[in-house]
Each structure stands twice: as structure tokens, then as C-alpha cells.
Amino acid sequence: MPINQALLDNPKSDRVRRVADLARAKGRERSGRFLIEGPQSVREAVTWRPDVVQDLYVAVDDTLGRVRYASDTLARIVETSQDATIYVHQATREVIERISKDAQGILAVGNMNAMHVGPDAVKLPAAGERTPRIAAFWQVRDPGNAGTVIRAADAAGCDAVILVDECVDPLNPKVVRSTAGSLFHIPVLQMDVEGFLAYCAEHDLTTIAADVYGTPDRRPESLPALLAERADARGDDADTAARPGEAVLFGNEARGLPPEILTRMDRIVSIPLYGKAESLNLGTSAAVMLMSLAMADR
């Protein structure tokens, strides 16, 4: 697709208003599009999921009639976008800031339908390759937390993220920003509890609840004990790649996981606290547990 040579310089135009409206849930639902803000998120979307990106808006400086991109970083993203034939709109800084205060000179409009994936879209490793792992989160409501845990799951090499029950919209602009591009690296699915448990059963995934207290009948195992168990298995020359996959479920930021879910999980595992802190926040808990499990595999 070509680069539109017409400069967008009217912050009050209908096009600018429509793109800015994507920050609202109703605007996204009405149009079927969502907002991708900032160089890092846009770069990852253009690089890894160009099929999602419909339009790119980039800030330019218009000095003495010479149009140039506001930075070399933005110029490189535009260059990459042209390999994927994405339509580029050049705009003044005022227009970009009218659409988003968090754009840092560049933003994109994505197709929501292209981001919605079903369970069949998740490609779990074949037997003998490595242990499949899913990161799941129950009723995560805070956009920043949702983005952070998606990023942690991506960093830990998880095969997918499942948002269970009523979670924040994963295409909320703050979620997209907080993933720092990971949203375009890893499938993100949405299911209810029954759908999640059925998916795990269908794919022979051991379910692990990340929980501090467990239930009156089941106290949690400690994460170090679980890691030691796996280290012992490796020492016995066990084929760790043949071990069944697992789905690690984390709870709501404030309430954790309810007993009715914990009783249906195969294992309950907690992260020990060695200092005086009462607890870890969701993002830290997800990063510690998922990365620890990933390192144990390797």
C-alpha cells in the first residue's frame, strides 16, 4: 500500500475523531477496530501480525515544505510496514496527540476480528519437543495487570494465554500498551471456567492453581518443592519433554481463586515469601512462577 502524501493536519476532522473513539469500548464494538499505541507495540504488530494492522498513523515534521518523520525509529517502522503493504497516513504531532496522549508519535488501527482466535488456533508442541504450557488468569480486571501478565507469559515461552470468566477487554488500549508488543506474539483466548477445564482435559494438561492459602483440605505445595521434584526427575534421566503439559491458573488481583475452582485443580502451588511482605502482586507472581517453570524445563 502507498504512503498517503496528504498531510493530516486537522485535529478536529472526522477521521481523527473516529480513530480517537477507539479508546472507548463502544467505539471498538461499533467499528470492529482497536488502537495500537506507541513505537514498541506498533513495531511488534507490524512485524509479527501485519495481517491485523489496517492503518498506520505517524507524526511528521513539516519544515519549509519538507516532510520528514519525527524520529529514525518511526521511519524504520514505516519502512517495515511497507513490506507488509500497510497504508500509512502522515500527520502532524497535534493530530497524533489528539488521537492518543500515549502514542509517542505513532499509532495503528487494528482489526479486532483478526485478533479473536479460538482454541484450535493454539499450536501446542508435539510429543517429545518440550512441555506445553498455558498461562491462565481468572477475572483479571485491571488493564495494566492484564498487559503485564500477557507479557510475562510471552517471556516464559508459554504457548497461549487464556483469560477466564469476566476479564478486562484484551484490546483495551492500556492492555495493548502494557503487553509491550507481546499481544502480537502469543494467542490470547477467552473462556469461562467450564470451557477452560474442558480445554485442559481435552489436551491432557495438568491444571496448577497459583494460590497462597489453598483450601482447608488441601494446603498448597511450595514452588521450590515443585522445582526440586522436576530437577530430581531430570537427574533420573526421565524424558521431561514427554511429561504432560500444564495450565497454570492465577486468580483475581484482590480475591485470588475461590474454593470452588481450587477444588477442581490438579495441584495448588504457592510462591514462598522470605521477608515481611504479606503478598506479591499478580504481575510479579505470574512472572516468578512462569519463568521458574520455564527454567526448570531447560
TrEMBL record:
InterPro entries: Alpha/beta_knot_MTases, MRM3-like_sub_bind, Ribosomal_eL30-like_sf, rRNA_Methyltransferase, SpoU_MeTrfase, tRNA_m1G_MTases_N. Residues 136-290 form the tRNA/rRNA methyltransferase SpoU type domain. Transmembrane segments: none annotated. GO terms for molecular function: RNA binding; RNA methyltransferase activity. GO terms for biological process: methylation; RNA processing. Keywords: Methyltransferase, Transferase. Gene3D superfamilies: 3.30.1330.30, 3.40.1280.10. It holds the Pfam family SpoU_methylase. PANTHER family: RRNA METHYLTRANSFERASE 3 (PTHR43191), RRNA METHYLTRANSFERASE 3, MITOCHONDRIAL (PTHR43191:SF2). It comes from Bifidobacterium callitrichos. Belongs to the class IV-like SAM-binding methyltransferase superfamily. RNA methyltransferase TrmH family. This is RNA methyltransferase. Residues 15-102 form the MRM3-like substrate binding domain.
